[in-house]
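To whoever picks this up:

The nightly regression suite flagged HAD family phosphatase as changed. Nothing in the input moved, so I suspect the structure step. Input below, exactly as stored in the fixture:
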Amino acid sequence: MWDMDGTLIDTEPYWMAAEIELVEAHGGVWTREDAVALIGSPMAVSAAQLQGRGVALGVDEIAHALNSAVGAAVAAGIPWQPGAHEALRALHAAGVPQALVTSSFEVLATPFAQAVGLFDVVVAGDTVARPKPDPEPYLAAARLLGVDVTRCVAFEDSRSGLASAVASGARVVAVDSHVVLAPPAGVSRTSSLDRLDVAMISRIASGETMDLRLPA
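Regenerated output under the current build:
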């Protein structure tokens, strides 16, 4: 089960740029640090923060503006994280069912999933009642896949997503990309998806905890 933004594709710079542009258009100030703090947050949380900086729009309007900006950027070419596309294809070739589990809205997640063509299930932030950090998105994905969530491996790059995946009962891999995570015991870690292969993912699914980060 895969998170999308930051884990599979490097859209975080697109989200940051869209947030900065929107806040500045309403006369406010939004920094990179502000944007990093929102990584992995559900849209309602992000919208509330932007409103607090002067964006005089409703949650739906903010969501539409951000998703449209990021969607346009992704449409120009999928910005894969290193090793991400290769991992998806290798797991697909091995017959492993895969789910996309993202806080992004369906309007952005579904076109991405269709373009990639390797996901069996898509769970977007606006298709669940309780988005990340609640475990519902991962529990829903496991249910749609028809498997026990404890037999799944979830890949996450944000604190909110990590909390969601861990609470679901899945095996979890924390991917240190834009945010350096501090996961609880039992969570595997990697500095990049290109350090993983199908055999390693199988070992993690079986209960092994691995640390594949590059030396500091």
